[in-house]
Amino acid sequence: MPNPPPTLTPAERFADILWYLAQAVVTRSAFGLSQPLIVLIITRIRDAKQAFARLAARIQAGTYAPRRRASTPPRPPAVQKPRPPPNPLLRKFGWLMPLVPGAVVFGGHLENLLRDPEMAALLAAAPVSLRRPIRSLCWMLRVEPPKILARPARPAKPRTPRPPRPRREPLPPYRPPTPPEAPAWMQNWPPSRTRWFSRTRTRSPPRTV
User: Fold this and answer.
1) What is the DSSP letter of 75?
2) CA torsion 142→146→148→150, rounded to 10°?
3) Can you give the pTM of this predicted structure?
4) Quick check: 196 pLDDT over 50?
5) pLDDT at 157
6) pLDDT at position 150, please?
7) Helix (H, G, I), strand (E, B) or coil at 136
8) Does 190 sit behind a cis peptide bond, omega within 30 degrees of 0 on the bond before it?
9) Radius of gyration (Cα) for the chain, nearest Å?
10) 3-state DSSP helix/strand/coil percent for the chain, to nearest 5?
11) What is the distance between the alpha carbons of residues 166 and 118, in angstroms, rounded to a whole number?
């Protein structure tokens, strides 16, 4: 009776998926895929494979420890170099599918691997460190990443309070200028609009017999 095939670990299954995916990308050179684009895709796959293999080995050996940021005084702002513009190809969810139609098979294998309990335990041991390589592959193969690898929500920027609006002073009542040669009884005539309006509102109507 032949011996049963050995059970592969999640790290070995992950490496096999990426190896066959890289081979599928290389074969697309015969179908018009440019050499610089193939190098870009292979580099991304290789970086994710190596980063996952290193972290998985440290987790299984019990030597993994999450990094702790030391409380150091803030550094003075340095002159930042302008970043190159992002590749518009890599900004689309599942951008590898139109270039390599057979990649949909490896996306299904990756999705099944992420649902494996052993793989879930491996991700839970180092979610921050494994977030970048796993999310990069999920974005490439149109696979929803596990919730444990979700990016932390950015804190909302505090809103600066608006200064209070200045209170407008009421306009003085309109009064047309009185010529200086007018008699004394015309100096205060006509009365202001506010005063005349209040008198007309409070005056009682005439009585009818």
Assistant:
1) P
2) 20
3) 0.64
4) no
5) 78
6) 87
7) helix
8) yes
9) 38
10) 50, 0, 50
11) 65
Cα–Cα distance measured from residue 208 to residue 132, given in angstroms and rounded to the nearest whole number: 93
Torsion from C-alpha of 196, 201, 203, 205, nearest 10 degrees: 130
For the chain, what are the domain ranges?
Answer: 10-64+89-143
Residue 209 has pLDDT above 60, yes or no: no
Instruction: Identify the residue whose tokens are 């919730």.
Output: 147
What are the tokens at 85?
């513009």
> Quick one: how far is CA 76 from the chain centroid?
26
Rounded distance between C-alpha atoms, residue 80 and residue 27, angstroms: 40
User: Read out DSSP for 69-102?
Assistant: ----PPPPPP-PPPPPPPPGGGGSTTTTTTT-TT
Residue 189 confidence (pLDDT): 60
Share of the chain above pLDDT 90, in %: 34
State the Cα torsion 22-23-25-28 to the nearest 10°. 170
Please say whether the beta carbons of 149 and 141 come within 8 A: no
3: pLDDT strictly greater than 60: no
Is pLDDT of 194 > 50?
no
Mean residue pLDDT of the chain comes to 79
Q: Tokens 């202001």, residue?
A: 192
Classify residue 60 as exposed, middle or buried by CB count within 10 Å of its CB (0-12, 13-18, 19+).
middle
User: What residue type is assigned to position 89 of the chain?
Assistant: L
Which of 196, 190, 123 is CA-nearest to residue 132?
123
Structure tokens at 81: 């170099």
